[in-house]
C-alpha cells in the first residue's frame, strides 16, 4: 500500500492504528490537538481485556511492554452497601483476564513505539471536507490544511471527521460522573482506603453510585455517578470546590462515612464528566477514503469497553489495510462490516447492565447481580 494514512487524534485508538500500520511498513501521520504528550493528565486506570484490548496490544507487538506496566492486584473488586456492609469481596488471584494499567503509561508505550515525528502535536482539527475521488481536506485551528486520500477520524466524541460520514451527534445519556482523587490514602484516608481495598470498589444504589479504584502511588480515584438532568448539574458552581463537593455529598446523606469520605475528603477539586452517546447501532454508508474508530464511531456511556474497543478498532483497521494493498475501499469495507456489529453488541449488553443498576431492585442480591453483569464504568472513562 503506497497511500499515506492520515489519522486525526492521538488517543489510544489512533496510536494503535499508527503502530500497527508502522509494523506493516505503511507511512502514517497523526495530527493531535494537544500541544505535547504531557499537555494534560491522561485519565485513570484501564482494565485491558483479553478478548479485545489485549488482542490490539498483540497486533502492535507490544505485549512485553504492556506486561511491564500492569498493576498487580488491581483486579480485586469489592461491592459495598450504602451502610458499608460488604456484599462482595472478590480478590485478585492472578487468573483474571482484565489486568489494570494506567492510561498514561499505555499511551506512552504506544508513542515510544512510533518513529519520531509521526505525531504532529498542536494540530486541532476544526473542519473537514470531501474533495472528490476519495480525497479529503482537513483544516486546523491555525488555518493550515492537509489533503489526504485516506483519512481516519480517531478524534473522539466530538469528532470533526464524523460529519463526512454521518449527521449523528452525541446526546446526553442522563447520567454524569463527578470525579476526584485521594492521595496517600492508606495514611491520610485510612477508612476510605480500607473500604476500597486493593482494587476497585462499587457502592451502587438506584440513580446514584460511588466507584473508586486504587491506582498507582497509593492514590484512590473516585467517580460519583448521578442520574440527573444537565440543568441539575448546571445549578452547581464547580468553580467553588467546597460548595460543589458539599452539594454532591448531600446526595449521599446517611451513607457510611468511609464511603462519603471518598467525596468529601478529595484532594482535588471535583470535576464534572457528563456522559454522551451516539445513537445505538450508529453506522454509515461507505464514503471513499474516510472512516472512523473508537468514540468517533460508536461513543457510548462509560461501560468498561471504550478504550478496549478503540484499540481493537485501530488494530483491525491496521491489519485490513495491508491485506488489501491495492484496494483501500475493500479494506475499509471489511473493517467497517466487522466494527459495526462488534460495537453494537457491546453497547446492547452493557446498556442492559446499567438499566438493572438503576432499577428499583435494591436487595443485596440484585445489586451484586447488576454489578457482576458489567465492568466498573469508571475504568474506561476518558
From TrEMBL:
<keyword id="KW-0547">Nucleotide-binding</keyword>
<feature type="binding site">
    <location>
        <position position="103"/>
    </location>
    <ligand>
        <name>FAD</name>
    </ligand>
</feature>
<keyword id="KW-0963">Cytoplasm</keyword>
<feature type="binding site">
    <location>
        <position position="295"/>
    </location>
    <ligand>
        <name>FAD</name>
    </ligand>
</feature>
<dbReference type="Pfam" id="PF01494">
    <property type="entry name" value="FAD_binding_3"/>
</dbReference>
<dbReference type="InterPro" id="IPR002938">
    <property type="entry name" value="FAD-bd"/>
</dbReference>
<comment type="function">
    <text>An FAD-requiring monooxygenase active on some tetracycline antibiotic derivatives, which leads to their inactivation. Hydroxylates carbon 11a of tetracycline and some analogs.</text>
</comment>
<keyword id="KW-0285">Flavoprotein</keyword>
<protein>
    <recommendedName>
        <fullName>Flavin-dependent monooxygenase</fullName>
        <ecNumber>1.14.13.-</ecNumber>
    </recommendedName>
</protein>
<comment type="subunit">
    <text>Monomer.</text>
</comment>
<keyword id="KW-0274">FAD</keyword>
<dbReference type="InterPro" id="IPR043683">
    <property type="entry name" value="TetX_monooxygenase"/>
</dbReference>
<feature type="domain" description="FAD-binding">
    <location>
        <begin position="2"/>
        <end position="325"/>
    </location>
</feature>
<keyword id="KW-0560">Oxidoreductase</keyword>
<feature type="binding site">
    <location>
        <position position="47"/>
    </location>
    <ligand>
        <name>FAD</name>
    </ligand>
</feature>
<dbReference type="InterPro" id="IPR036188">
    <property type="entry name" value="FAD/NAD-bd_sf"/>
</dbReference>
<keyword id="KW-0503">Monooxygenase</keyword>
<feature type="binding site">
    <location>
        <position position="40"/>
    </location>
    <ligand>
        <name>NADPH</name>
    </ligand>
</feature>
<keyword id="KW-0521">NADP</keyword>
<comment type="similarity">
    <text>Belongs to the aromatic-ring hydroxylase family. TetX subfamily.</text>
</comment>
